[in-house]
Amino acid sequence: MRLDLRSVIHTPDAKKDFQLEIDLSHLDFFGQTPITHPVQSSGCVTNHAGALMLTGTAHSVLDLTCDRCGKPFSREKIVPLDALVAQELEDDENDEILLLDGYELDMDEVVTTAFILAMDTKNLCSDDCKGLCSGCGVDLNVDTCRCKPEVDPRLAALAQLLDKETE
After folding, report:
1. What is the predicted pLDDT for the residue at 167?
2. Residue 161 DSSP symbol
3. 84 near 44, Cβ under 8 Å?
4. Of 55, 123, 134, 164, which is most buried with the most CB atoms under 10 A?
5. Per residue, what are the HEC states of 103-150?
């Protein structure tokens, strides 16, 4: 969707609303495609004393797999959209300002970029997820591990003495 901002650029306090839905289900994140639901976004571009400000949100439900226990889960993802918009840049170093193409802003690109940059690199089903036992593979959220604790080889002689005392 291309948002035409002709009516907003030179009119102080003018506002242009937007609302769009984007399908990002084709995007691959570390071998998974978690954005299975469309991304809904809405907001506005407002002229504040000659400065164009884009504000809004993008949200969707992600279908993820926990990085600790391997269980699938769903989580809502809400991404704020806040950026300055300009027709031209005075310096090339400010990459946080969105550039207009003529009088239009490519909202598909804006929302897609914001959503991709906000994706988490680690996904947990809960903050206190205990994960899987590295020895027996049991889900520590559901059951307790039955593995025998490993003895440090430097302390093996002491462990043998303790075993003899219990006999």
Report:
1. 60
2. H
3. no
4. 123
5. CEEEHHHHHHHHHHHCCCCCCCCCCCCCCECCCCCCECCCCCCCCCCC
Radius of gyration of the chain (CA): 26
**Residue 17 and residue 55: Cα distance in Å, rounded?**
10
Q: Which residues pair with 29 in a beta bridge?
A: 32
HSE-CB at 103 with a 13 A cutoff on CA atoms is: 8
Query: Hey, what are 163's tokens?
Result: 């075993």
Take residue 132 and report the two structure tokens written for it.
């899987």
Give the helix/strand (H/E) hosting 166: helix 156-166
pLDDT, tens digit (0-9, with 9 covering 90-100), for 96-138: 777 777 888 889 999 999 999 999 888 999 999 999 988 888 8
Residue type for 158, please?
L
